[in-house]
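Intended use. Records like the one below are meant for learning the mapping from a protein sequence to its folded structure. Do not use them to infer anything beyond what is encoded.
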Amino acid sequence: MGRRLLALVFLAALFGGALGSRTAHATAAKSTAGPVVAVGVPGLRWDDLNPRDTPNLWRLAGRAGLANVSTYTVSGVTCPVDGWLTVSAGQRASLGGSEPVVCGLPSPPSPSGAGAVVPGFAEIRARNLRGKYAASVGSLGTAIHRAGGLTMAAGPGAAFAAADDRGRVDFYAPAPEAVPATRWASVRLAVVDVEDIQRAYLRAGSAAVTRTQRAAAVRQVDRRLATVLTTLPASAKVLVAGVSDTTRRNSLHVVMAAPALRPEYLTSASTRRQGLVTLTDLTAGVLSAADVPVPAAVIGRAWHPDGRPATVAAAADSLGDANRAAEISRHSMTPFWIAFMAGQLLLYAAGALALRRNWQGGRRRRVLAATRTVALCGAAGPLATYLVNLLPWSRSPHPVTTMLACVAAFDALLVAAALAGRWRRGVIAPGTIIAALTMVTFAVDVMTGARLQWNSVTGYNPIIAGRFYGFANIAFAAYATAVLFTAAGLAHLLVTRGHRRSAVIVVLALGAAAEVVTAWPDWGAKFGGTIAFIPGIVITALIVAGRRISPVHVVGCVVAGVVVIGTSAFVDHLRPPARRTHLGEFAGQVLNGQATTVMTRKADAMLRSVGHSPELTILTVAALLFLWLALIRPTRWRAGALEMAYGQAPALRAGLGGAFATSMIGFLVEDSGISVPGIALAIAVPLTLAAAVRALAIHRQAAGVLPSERG
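Structure written out for the chain above:
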């Protein structure tokens, strides 16, 4: 009996202690729960911060997750109101209207008891719901209210972010300094607007803001932030973010999320980049920090740690360098594409002249050899723009000049490699080497995080925020063209040795492997590209096999592409949300019946691409005209160069035909439209020209018109 009593006492103590510990833990958790305070500072960049001028921000960074935030919304300039509305919706949103030179400040809300109501909010919400992103403005505040929490806004911009779908916030103060110290603990979410940097630009008007003026505004931001931090409860979670641009200069901006045990980089499923999140991620991050479910209308994803810097200073330098590289790359794109277009047009003019003129003797051979070399340079250009990111060009005193010089140097090295060995005598061998190097580099890069594509003038840019991982449209077009020309070159080697069946197998095997790289969510993650790629692969294989191509083949290939990418997207959708790519998200939208908005937006972007990308439009038209007038119609230009190339290397027809099919279908199914055939033809036509002039030279040598080549 005594033993039973002792056992009962022991069990009671054990379970009692367990229950007591749970109760104590729950009480502690409840007592430590505090508000989430989101402080928005329009225009704040990492190069604004240092321990002397911004000591409070610097100390906060020492216990926070750190990142850049890409603030692109609907238009080319994200003004404060657009940034705040995007945070409110968790989707790209805007106030509407034209893009200003200098952004204005948000209008103050109308007082309503202890809170406030944003005037015209119903109209703003309806306009964004009708917009191309179908942004549900008010999602942030509504989610807090549905979870039983209260919202507070300090400052006009904060009211736009914290308002629910009726435009209301529960508590409002015109400035953070006016918030009673006891108010912070009574709300679930507090949004604070610190607009001093923006005010500095408004005071300057049309004049440029000097470094001294900007530094003074940033110091004022730091002092006002200190006022907020000293009045917050110890359990508060603090987010500081540069929620918008201030002028037409687009940048990446500051994000800090505290508390953390020590400085750490942040990332999210939206970007998959260390130290980078999107503006829409702020909505999901705030709601997750408040332990509130994220609504389906919010496309952003909560951030998570991704590595630790050695010090706050190291993080600030690294994130500042990332912004500078993005700015330089962004502003270099237009002059680069103009120069690239001009170079291609000159190449076509020189090619037409070389084929048309009746050059004599050694002079003709030199002209044809020079034309071939220049053509290979044009085809190697996209790869050279990737390889330049192996070098720290953004840290140069003259980064743009350094970048362009390095691109030219890499281009020359690639062509030298293509013409270095005995293979230079072949019709398509040098072009195959250029294509193979492009194919391998692009594939390895996208399979290892697309670091070379990042901030490349032919890749993607975090400020533009069209894409953050996988293949960009231009990169896909270059990759697919390189794969098909590489397959054609390998097929040529096998066919000339009597192994046609093996050549077809090699084309299909290489194409299948390249298609996996394109469609796999963690690699290429390319929706439209997967659909466009299969027809090009099959057409290349059919031509190598000597088979005729019918419309049934093309339609069947497109259907196969839809099945492949649909399967990839569905498998991606089965993964946890934090690991999904945009493919999985799109599969979820299809299952939920919400995909129409996305498809309509992409179709509209495809149609608009012709006018919005004049350089690539001109490139596409010029390449097609040159292909038709200078190469396909030899009688008019007195040079049957392409037919000679087909005669000496029949597989060239397969590579060109496959690349043309993929680029044209890609034009229809990709949202950037004209960029796909523009860059595909900018590689395919120079490679074809290089093969054609070499075939013409060999034909002339055989006819005794040109001296035979030695060495």
